[in-house]
Specification:
Helix 1 (about 10-20) packs across helix 10 and helix 3 runs antiparallel to helix 4. Strands 10, 11, 12, 13, 14, 15, 16, 19 and 21 form a 9-stranded antiparallel β-sheet that branches. The protein starts with a strand and ends with a strand. It has 3 domains: about 5-90, Rossmann fold (3-Layer(aba) Sandwich), CATH 3.40.50.20; about 120-185, Dna Ligase, domain 1 (2-Layer Sandwich), CATH 3.30.1490.20; about 190-375, D-amino Acid Aminotransferase, Chain A, domain 1 (2-Layer Sandwich), CATH 3.30.470.20. It is an alpha+beta fold. The protein has helices spanning about 10-20, 55-65, 75-85, 95-100, 105-110, 125-135, 160-170, 230-245, 280-285, 290-295, 330, 365-375; strands at about 5, 25-30, 45, 65-70, 90, 120-125, 140-145, 155, 180-185, 190-200, 205, 210-215, 220-225, 250-260, 265-270, 310-315, 320, 325, 335-340, 345, 350-360, 375.
């Protein structure tokens, strides 16, 4: 039985714990607040900020895990680099966790490998941001180098928008780095997430592309498979394999791309299951969480089978605690529809609280209709 220390216990972590428990693992779930979703299904839990070095080291020393599995970016990754040298295994690797904690580092890796990205630069102040945005050319996308779920992301259409974008990015930052990435606005036809699985034994595997739509920088709904030409798929797979091979280790990576009429452009990468990949809970024989668990445990993945599927988020609209849900019965009355309620103990505007899933014909429309039937009550 493998002992796993899970760093981050949100809805993605919860599904990973379920997959790992089915394979006989013992899981300790960690997060900054009690009652986080993954804690509800784990064997044990710890409450501390993973940006705080002392309790992170203490948890590793106490539990002596076989595997340290980050679920979020906001981790004192210097600790992971250190404990990996001591013999602990970080998934997929401490270097991957360290590089992807900040958008600037992983983007620099991609460029160094010759991977096509949007034009971009960095800024440490509003004045520098204005200068960089002017050089790239408006409109530009502005994001904190470290955040999650789209927090702090905005589009500055003109120079007059830059100060507001800087302030919004600073408000959405995680960690202690007041730095933003400013990038060219890509007029894409669609965005995809290419779930990429690095195995301990065997070749790198790819799930069928997942299309998704974002608002406020956060995914709202996703579908699988996203139609692409064979050339587009190969271009995405080649870039994903190049970057994940450089990062090393075993596990599932969520690699995001913009797809235009003429090219496929690398956007971002997460060395863990991806929120848009929640669609795989209904569209694939092995969900992204099953694939991550098998990959990190070194278990075989004979085939990845996919049917048409879609996911649509259910958001809270106000602050509160101990939420309840209405409309679940109506949503589940539709054949081929399922619902996952995450179990988060508190709400805030736009916080993701549940997801509706659908498979079969018109899956996206049916998932969105199911999500619209569900309300978060506080």
């Amino acid at each position: 039985m493998k002992k796993i220390l899970l760093l981050g216990s949100g809805e993605l972590g919860k599904e990973f714990v379920i997959s790992a428990k089915r394979l006989g693992c013992y899981v300790i779930a960690c997060d900054s607040y009690a009652g986080a979703p993954a804690m509800q299904v784990a064997d044990e839990f710890c409450v501390f900020s993973m940006l705080d070095e002392a309790p992170l080291r203490a948890a590793i020393a106490k539990y002596q895990p076989d595997l340290i599995v980050p679920e979020i970016e906001a981790i004192r990754t210097e600790v992971l680099l250190d404990v990996e040298k001591q013999g602990f295994e970080v998934i997929p690797s401490a270097r991957a966790a360290n590089l992807t904690m900040n958008r600037d580092r992983i983007r620099d890796v991609a460029v160094g490998l010759g991977v096509r990205t949007a034009k971009f630069s960095y800024a440490d102040s509003a004045a520098e941001l204005l200068a960089q945005a002017t050089e790239i050319g408006f409109p530009v996308v502005i994001k904190p180098v470290m955040s999650s779920s789209g927090k702090g992301q905005s589009v500055a259409k003109t120079a007059a928008d830059v100060q507001a974008s800087w302030d919004y990015a600073c408000a959405g930052m995680r960690g202690d780095r007041q730095k933003v990435i400013v990038e060219e606005f890509i007029h894409f036809e669609f965005e995809i997430t290419l779930l990429t699985v690095r195995q301990r034994k065997g070749p790198t595997l790819f799930c069928p592309p997942i299309g998704h739509v974002q608002e406020r920088g956060d995914y709202q709904y996703s579908w699988q498979p996203q139609g692409m030409t064979p050339a587009q798929v190969k271009a995405a797979q080649d870039m994903a394999e190049k970057v994940t091979t450089d990062l090393g280790g075993a596990g599932l990576f969520g690699v995001e791309f913009f797809v235009t009429k003429d090219e496929v452009i690398f956007s971002e990468l997460s060395p863990r299951p991806h929120d848009t990949g929640m669609v795989t809970l209904i569209s694939q024989n092995l969900s992204e969480f099953d694939l991550h668990a098998r990959a990190v445990l070194g278990l075989p993945i004979p085939s990845i089978e996919c049917v048409e599927g879609a996911s649509a988020v259910v958001l809270a609209d106000k602050e509160g605690s101990n939420p309840t849900f209405t409309g679940v019965e109506a949503a589940l009355s539709e054949p081929g529809v399922d619902v996952r309620i995450f179990g988060k103990p508190t709400t805030r505007p736009y916080r993701r609280m549940a997801v509706a899933l659908a498979k079969g014909p018109n899956a996206l429309q049916r998932a969105r209709e199911a999500a619209a039937k569900i309300s978060v009550v506080v």
